[in-house]
Design a protein that fits this description.
Radius of gyration: 27 Å
Number of strands: 6
Distance between the termini: 13 Å
CATH topology of one domain: Ribosomal Protein L4, Chain: A
Shape: elongated
CATH class of one domain: Alpha Beta
Strand order of the largest sheet: 2-1-3-6-4-5
Number of helices: 7
Structural class: alpha/beta
Order of helices and strands: EEHHHEHEHEHEH
CATH superfamily of one domain: Ribosomal protein L4/L1
Largest sheet: 6 strands, mixed
Helix content: 25-40%
């Protein structure tokens, strides 16, 4: 059971916290990252690309010229794919890109991602992440104290922190219920409140 230091928002040590082995100290199996992240990114694809076929474009259905005797190649309708403005052959159609990922696999990958950040020393626990007001400057100062610019901040529902981070390029906020493998892996440091850690351990452990 790993025991980590707990800091306040001024980076002063205020105590320690015992993390669950089930969530924060499991074997890191990287193939799970690939499977889950692939599924996450596939779900973000809209799948709404669409082109019109020759049956859907608006053109006259009249034969362009007679079949024989002109010396030219025979032609049917102006909506054929090789005509300018004609329909597209084998074009994209609306579809779902969803890749099925089992619930146990998603959970195992989440624990592995958290364990990797904990083992690397890039999981930082903060006693509380409350802000007096919506202030981006306050969040920037927090990141500077912990010497990171590309961070994922995790807390229970915290609207002030969410609004304060929405304009930042490298850092962003997630409520603990929306925590996912992709956002953990792309962040250099995970700043998590002790309340979020307890919530996560209660849900998974």
């Amino acid at each position: 059971m790993p025991v980590v230091d707990v800091y306040n928002m001024d980076r002063q040590k205020v105590g320690t916290f015992a993390l669950s082995d089930v969530v924060f100290d499991v074997e890191v199996r990287e193939h799970l990252f690939h499977e889950v992240v692939r599924g996450q990114l596939a779900q973000r694809r809209a799948g709404t690309a669409k082109t019109k076929t020759r049956a859907e474009v608006k053109h006259t259905r009249k034969k362009l010229f007679k079949q024989k005797g002109t010396g030219r190649a025979r032609q049917g309708m102006k909506s054929a794919p090789h005509w300018v403005g004609g329909g597209t052959a084998h074009g994209p159609a609306p579809r779902s890109f969803e890749v099925k990922v089992n619930k146990k696999v998603r959970r195992a990958a989440l624990c592995a991602a958290l364990s990797r950040r904990q083992q690397e020393g890039r999981l930082v626990l903060i006693d509380q992440m409350g802000l007096e007001a919506v202030k981006t400057k306050r969040v920037v100062q927090l990141l500077e104290r912990f010497e990171t610019s590309k961070a994922l901040m995790v807390d229970t529902d915290n609207d002030k922190l969410r609004l304060s981070t929405r304009n930042l390029v490298g850092a962003h906020f997630l409520p603990v219920g929306d925590l996912n493998v992709y956002d953990i892996l792309r962040a250099e440091t995970v700043l998590m409140s002790t309340a979020a850690a307890e919530d996560l351990q209660a849900r998974i452990g």
